[in-house]
Specification:
Layout: H1 7-27, H2 31-64, H3 67-89, H4 94-121, H5 127-146
Helix pairs in contact: 1-2, 1-4, 2-3, 2-4, 2-5, 3-4
Bound molecules: fe (ii) ion (2 copies).
Length: about 150
């Protein structure tokens, strides 16, 4: 059986995927393609933030007791959600997409450099088990969005 990813690796794969989609968005010139990419980015982000909010952050906070870091992360999610809501009305607004990219890249950096290293050294945080929960919930949400 292949080695399974832990929760941090799995979440970081989502981050890389979205960063790649932002690059494609910036390289795209056709408004239809921009619209499709913008909607894919927003959907990816909404699902990703939801599984973090529902599963990863509470488990992280329980195990580490680091409330400020989780609160800061949730504030950044909220900022991203507000931009995504604005994009629903103006999906081709490049300025909003660039602003969203900025917020997300900053946030991803915080998770990568602060939260994930702390999660990995915290005993009692089962990152393999969390990865399974995150994956299952992600599948559920993607199926609901697709339907
Ligand atoms: Fe994340
Ligand atoms: Fe996040």
């Amino acid at each position: 059986m292949p080695q399974q990813d832990d929760a941090c690796t799995m979440l970081d794969e989502d981050h890389n995927k979205v960063a790649g989609l932002f690059e494609q968005y910036k390289a795209a010139h056709d408004p239809n393609r921009q619209r499709l990419l913008a909607s894919e980015i927003c959907q990816e982000l909404l699902v990703h933030m939801q599984i973090e909010d529902e599963i990863f952050y509470p488990a992280f906070q329980r195990a580490t007791g680091d409330q400020p870091l989780v609160q800061e992360s949730k504030r950044e999610h909220q900022e991203a959600r507000e931009l995504i809501a604005q994009l629903e009305d103006k999906p081709t607004e490049a300025r909003l997409m660039l602003e969203l990219e900025d917020v997300i890249l900053d946030h991803v950096n915080d998770e990568r450099e602060k939260m994930f290293p702390q999660a990995r050294k915290t005993k009692g945080l089962d990152l393999m088990q969390l990865a399974q929960q995150l994956q299952a919930r992600k599948m559920e949400l993607l199926a609901a969005h697709a339907g």
